Amino acid sequence: MPSADVIIPDELVRLVSRHVPDPGMPTGADWLDRLPALASAVLQEWDLELDGPPRHGYSALVLPVRSPRGRAVAKIVWPHTEGRDEHRALQLWNGRSAVRLLAADPARWAMLLERLDADRTLEQEAAGSALGELTATEDLGVLITALDRSAPPWADTLSDHLRELRTDLDVALAPASNAVAFPRRMLEEARALASDLLTDNGLDARLTHTDLHHGNVLWRPDPGEWVAIDASVLAAEPGWAFQPVLLNTWPALERATNLRQAVRRRLETLADVTGVDLDRARALAHLRLVRDALWELEAAEVDRMQVTRLVTVAKALAGR
Ligand SMILES: Nc1ncnc2c1ncn2[C@@H]1O[C@H](COP(=O)(O)OP(=O)(O)O)[C@@H](O)[C@H]1O
Ligand SMILES: [Mg+2]
Fold first, then answer.
1. What is the pLDDT of residues 175-227, one digit of tens each?
2. CA atoms within 13 A on the CB side of 265
3. Which residue out of 11, 75, 124 has the highest number of ligand 1 atoms within 8 Å of its CB and is therefore the one to mutate?
4. Do 70 and 136 sit in the same domain of this protein?
5. Does the CB atom of residue 72 touch ligand 1 within 6 A?
6. How many domains does the chain have?
7. Out of 57-71, 96-110, 241-255, which region has the weakest mean confidence (pLDDT)?
8. Catalytic residue IDs
9. Relative to the alpha carbon of 56, which ligand is closest?
10. Is there a single domain that holds both residue 146 and residue 82?
């Protein structure tokens, strides 16, 4: 298959170019240069034929394909630390509540996946009505529980992650930091929470999908169920998975008459469905919101709107 057949969406180019690569990973520009050749190699390796327009998210090209085993998609990921173990996690879940892995080529950061209905996501469900919004949150809670299992030894740990975050917070709290736009109290609170959590031995016990938001849940037509895609994983605990649910489908939140209430209702629903302690869930979510805002402030081109969203949700969760 000649590489010219693979069209790389402009929006993917824009998204990948604006992020700073993780340490030891290729820059977005380098990866984009190699992407057409990578895609052809993957199509050849697995004997695939393109079968529709490409899709993408923030960090991957997804090609609908026909494979010898039927309709599938080939996903080629821009290498980043959080995406490193996606194929291993999918293997563990073995198609239960998560997309089925058909083949993996870790050297190329490529996977062949079962084809799901990409036009039906929990995003639309949530945006449709107040009932849809509630049901989508419940569905996400059910998935968090269904994907929960003992953490495998290969997964990065929440403890390591929190230790790094504590260092980042120290930097942000230093006088000359670029986090000035940030409410200082929020940073201090996050630092104290991280230290508190680090005294807990059970912190790394469970395999956790850390990017389980509405857009990363697609419909599996047969037998008819929601399943998770785009697995970033951490050895953590189920409450660590809540934050993307609180933040995503922003238009649905913005339309709510009371955003604070809408965010809190999502948190309470998730805690209820999963059995996670509400205060614990709030603390973990707060930490992730602050962390994401710090990361966003480090981007080559800062998305101020995203920082505002993160701080808004953090404020909505704060207090009683
Ligand atoms: N198994 C699949 N079946 C059909 N479409 C998929 C599948 N996996 C991903 N997609 C499509 O590709 C998009 C990006 O995939 P995703 O795994 O979320 O990557 P990213 O890390 O870039 O967000 C999804 O939002 C969806 O539209
Ligand atoms: Mg995605």
1. 877 666 678 888 999 999 999 999 988 899 999 999 999 999 999 999 999 99
2. 17
3. 75
4. no
5. no
6. 2
7. 241-255
8. 211
9. 1
10. no
User: 319 in the Ramachandran plot: left (φ > 0), alpha (ψ -120 to 50) or beta?
Assistant: left
Long-range contact set of residues 130-137: C-beta below 8 Å, sequence gap at least 24: 133/249, 133/252, 133/262, 134/265, 134/269, 136/214, 136/249, 137/245, 137/265, 137/266, 137/269, 137/270, 137/273
- Which pTM does this prediction carry? 0.94
How far is ligand 2, taken at its centre, from the CA of residue 281, in Å? Answer: 23
Q: Is the CB of 116 under 6 A from ligand 1?
A: yes
Whose CA is closest to 32, among 77, 66, 74?
77
Where residue 228 sits, what CATH number does that domain have? 3.90.1200.10
Token pair 């948190």 is at which residue? 267
**Under a CB-based contact definition with an 8 Å cutoff, are residues 93 and 48 in contact?**
no
User: Alpha-carbon distance 118 to 126, whole Å?
Assistant: 16
Ligand 1 pocket check for 219: Cβ under 6 Å: no
- By alpha-carbon position, which residue is closest to atom 27 of ligand 1? 118
> Where in the sequence is the domain holding 60, given as residue range(s)?
3-115
Tokens standing for residue 295: 């990361």
Q: Ligand 1: which of 55, 58, 116, 121 to mutate, most ligand atoms within 8 Å of CB?
A: 55
